[in-house]
Amino acid sequence: MTSIAQWPALDRTSGDLEGQVYRAMRDRILHGQMPAGQRVPSTRALAISLGVARSTVVNAYDRLKAEGYLQSTTGAATRVAAFSTPPLQGQVAAPPPNSSQTTEFATGGLFEPGVPDVSAFPHAAWARCLGARGRSLRVHDLGYGAHGGIPELRAAILDHISATRGVIARPEQVLIVPSTGAAISLLASVLLWADHPNGGFAWIEDPGYATAHALLRMAGAALVAVPCDEEGIDIARADGPPPRLIYVTPSHQYPTGVTMSLSRRLALLEFARATGAIVLEDDYDSEFQYASRPIAALQGIDRGEVVAYLGTFSKTLAPGLRVAYAVVPSRLVATVETAQRLRGAVVPVHIQAALADFIDEGRFRAHLRHMNAVYAERMAAVVSALNRHCGAWLDVGEGNGGQQLASWFRDIAVDDVAAVRSINSHGFALRAMSSLHLGPSRPGMLFGIARMEAAAANAAAERIARLLAMSAVA
């Protein structure tokens, strides 16, 4: 067992003591300093040694267990978990200095996936921030200079995602864009070089996000579908030429909702480093976790700057704000900023300034806490209602996070496109799971939970059950 005396003192001035304990042990494990099977200090002993509350260490250990770094059984000591991929060697590198919808999918109906509830948008707080900034914009903010985003917003976003998602970067690596789609397009335009040996190939999750598929195709990519299972994308099962980029949703896979296992994360990072590929990590709605705290971002354990991290305020605040961001490897910043300027993919400066204040004043985090509670209640109600009324037809996902819920037909011969089209004609807006596959698929339905009031979930699920009973699915 690693001597407790070897642990560095915590930086109490920077706060987040739990995060410091978590990162210190995670990095020891990843660097091979704590091998698989090694017993870790007890929570009580480590808490006493570090001079923190035991709950701080308990919570840090819970995060490490949830992400696959530690394992424990009742009555036995907690130990370092075994990985199928060897731990990465070396230190965590600090960034270097400067440097279309298908016909079965209706919109505007019940259970529409991908649409947040904006009825709880904090209008008054946002109006104050927007009004104040609109009246006091500085002269240098009104010019052409800040194509990648104003410094205040870059710094505010980085502070937030560093604390909540474990992202490691410098503010100049954060680029402000109108949408995640804009970020995907920008990065694809930079990465998919016609004269590169692997320049035309993009590996994508299967099933996966149809909009990302379309954007990559528009950028000239030849898509290679890589199967996903309960551990996320499995690059060992990829069948195609080496890629220039790999698009993944590791924290909350779209649409299945699974979390990529630690072994798969390490394998993906090592593969990207070895082949020169860039991983596009779309962290679209991972702020919403109901069974545990959000899993740390893949970017935070990236040793070779092979991950471009994408985030958006569309799911957490409102799509109409048109604000997203990309944290890009430092060597790509200048090239991506040039592409951004040429495409005009910028966000109005008064929106950026107001959002920076909104985050810095703690209003964004307060809104997230509120909406996480709201969505957790709705997800639980939807899962319960679907299991109660539709369980004879559907295998319903656990619903541990996010704003959508996957389900699969128990009868694999069901035509899910036809079933969804029939249901959607009665005021629903479900998505057929097969429409999100490029390869072999399992039939199912994708539910959006964000706008489904908990009290209304039972009646809605009962209606769907009646429709399924009357259709050919029965």
UniProtKB/TrEMBL annotation:
CDD domains: AAT_like, WHTH_GntR. Gene3D superfamilies: Type I PLP-dependent aspartate aminotransferase-like (Major domain), Winged helix-like DNA-binding domain superfamily/Winged helix DNA-binding domain. Residues 15-83 form the HTH gntR-type domain. Transmembrane segments: none annotated. Pfam families: Aminotran_1_2 (PF00155), GntR (PF00392). In the C-terminal section; belongs to the class-I pyridoxal-phosphate-dependent aminotransferase family. This is GntR family transcriptional regulator / MocR family aminotransferase. It comes from Rhizobium lusitanum.
